[in-house]
Amino acid sequence: MKESVDTLFVGISELVTLQEGPERGGVRGAELDQAEVVRDGAIAVREGRIVATGTTEALMKVYEAPKPRDLRGLVVLPGFVDAHTHPVFGETREGEFHLRCRGADYVEIAKQGGGILSSVRSLRAISEERLLGLVEKRLRGFLALGTTSIEGKSGYGLSLESELKSLRALQKASLETGLTVSPTFLGAHEVPPEFREDPDAYVDLLCEEMLEAARPLADSCDAFIESHVFGLDQGRRIFQKADSLGYRIRAHVDELSPLGGTELAVELGAASADHLLYLSEEGLERLAASETTAVLLPGTSFFLGKDRYAPGRRLADARALVALATDFNPGSCYTQSLPMIATLACLHFAFSPAECLNAMTRNAAYSLGLDAERGTLHPGKAADFAAFDLPSFAGLGYRFGDNSCVLTVKDGAIVHEVSP
Ligand code: NIG
Ligand code: FE
Predict the structure, then answer these.
(1) How far apart are CA 163 and CA 88, in angstroms?
(2) Ligand nearest to the CA of 190
(3) Is the CB of 252 under 6 A from ligand 1?
């Protein structure tokens, strides 16, 4: 008698489960570069969870399902986990992109009231219902690209009311679409217009009121630590208060100048330090020796037209925990595609397909505290995976600029499918 399961996916040309590595936690160094390929692979799913993975031959002997699903010609990978996104915004900013293409500078645009502040005006003006519609559409966009979990930040409201509106929209959109969202409160994304003369008063408001009020809707707290936004002392105040409220800490650091935000993040035991373009030697050593995940966002360097990228190779070689993420946002990186980010990581960090995959699945999940349930295809974990039209697993990074994802399975259900 065969054991019955809900679904049996068979005939997978190349299946990568990441099962040879640890079930939980992140991987570093040589382990980051491990990803075994099963040829003619199969996956058995019951009640939204992985029952078993292996070869088609082996699984067909043990399991039966009403209608086995043939994934011949496709590469199947664990669902991607995007550890850094800003999906809650109103209008897009394509005008600003073209200004930058003609020489305008990102920080100059921000100082003149454009950039994040233009997104703040638009977010404050939009109704919660319309915002929800936009966020839902974006979350479906992630699923269609093979991403099954994201970290999603607020941060374009910068008032208690509009930050809560953002976090509620994110929570509802997650429920509507099924995409797993780890919500982050980014009230410290920029100094809001009404506090330009007295930024410390906004830090007071964050620490005395906003952080506590947002806590029921957010797991993590983030801040943009940069000389023209929040300084190190302000960042320390915000993060210490956040820590006392039980938030995990994530931080935008050393993105545009070498301020030392990474050292602060590591000192405070942050879950992640993100961007890192201007990471100091000291910061690199401390980060590599810590449990703080280095979240690399090469799409932002690319989209801002910069020559500078974070020292991704050096971080990986120094045995840092590294994750790759999109930084999806309307200003500095308007893409939701992790395969596109893999291409940039191959080119600029010399990452292998295995390094890319571990960085955009298990390590990302670990930095979000989702690793017990997601990030690899170990039996018992959620059946979150995606099938790609790639020549082989090595096609991750190789194919870019279009969508190779033809099927996404989220908690055992097909949530995206391209008809053949
Ligand atoms: O991660 N660095 C700060 N925040 C975003 C940009 C946001 C925007 O320009 O709207 C980032 O790059
Ligand atoms: Fe960001």
Answers:
(1) 10
(2) 1
(3) yes
